[in-house]
Amino acid sequence: MTGDPLKLFGRHLTWLRKQRGWSQEALSLESGLARSYLSGIERGTRNVALYNICTLADTLGVAPPEMLNFSQHESATTVEAPRSPFHSESSPAVQATMRYMAELSDFEQDVVAGVARALAKKNPR
């Protein structure tokens, strides 16, 4: 392996995320990881924990070892078909929430995401 492993992992994560057509915010909402943390991983400035690698793999629909396969971006990587983090027929309330979230600062988005994660853990489906 040549190059900084943090940057290689970040580049690969970005590639996998974009294969799904997701923004960092969508990946954050789906995985439960803070958007600012994901941004740091993708820039190669954050050292990601093994647990979070497995969480990201599950969220992106790839096997955990695929998360460390930096060399084959253009090959036949098996990735699930792109899907929206919300149903395509999103309710007006979800659409309004997404518009509101887009106007928040990074810090405010992280606070809202933290509250959502806490509520999801409190009331699992």
Q: Could you explain the architecture of this structure?
A:
- With 125 residues, the chain is mainly α.
- It has a single domain, classed as lambda repressor-like DNA-binding domains (434 Repressor (Amino-terminal Domain), Orthogonal Bundle), CATH 1.10.260.
- It is built from 6 helices and no strands.
- α1 crosses α3.
- The chain is elongated and about 45 Å long.
- 18% of the residues are buried.
Tell me the Rg in angstroms.
Answer: 15 Å
- Principal-axes shape call: elongated
CATH topology: 434 Repressor (Amino-terminal Domain)
Secondary-structure arrangement, i.e. CATH architecture: Orthogonal Bundle
Look at the structure and give the mean pLDDT: 81
What would CATH call the homologous superfamily?
lambda repressor-like DNA-binding domains
Report the CATH C-level class: Mainly Alpha
Broad structural category? mainly alpha
Distance between the termini: 42 Å
**What's the number of extended β-strand segments?**
0
Number of domains: 1
